[in-house]
Amino acid sequence: MESITVPELKGWEKNAKKFLLLDVREEWEHAAGNIGGVNIPLGELLSRKEEVDKDEAVVVYCEKGIRSAIAIQRLEAYGFHHLINLTGGMAAWKKNA
Questions:
Q1: Which domains does the chain have, with CATH numbers?
Q2: Rounded Cα gap, residues 40 and 72, in angstroms
Q3: At 97, is the pLDDT very low, low, confident or very high (cuts 50, 70, 90)?
């Protein structure tokens, strides 16, 4: 599974690299604090997978990186490519803020 660190992701943002940011945490978690992107909770991901572009690079994040890894495995089973797990998730983002 491909992964990206917080400093690498910040570099992508600084250089305006094209990618989708996907938050797979619950809506209340996203509302409490996020780094942007689309919020599709893990439990809804497969029923809403058409909201994610199969051909675009997608950085998936959650709180610590576990749910995002599960999300990537599930999407890969449906033919998604270019899925990247944010190492350490929001917890790592907050430490590097």
A1: 2-95 (3.40.250.10)
A2: 13
A3: confident
48 exposed, middle or buried (CB, 10 Å; 0-12, 13-18, 19+)? exposed
**55-81: pLDDT as tens digits:** 899 999 999 999 999 999 999 999 999
CA 34 to mean position of chain CA atoms: 11
Backbone torsion region of residue 56, taken as left when φ is above 0, otherwise alpha when ψ lies between -120 and 50, otherwise beta: beta
Which pTM value belongs to this model? Answer: 0.96
Taking every pair of Cα atoms in the chain, the longest distance, rounded to a whole number of angstroms, is 34
Give the burial class of 82: count Cβ atoms within 10 A of its Cβ; 0-12 exposed, 13-18 middle, 19 or more buried: middle
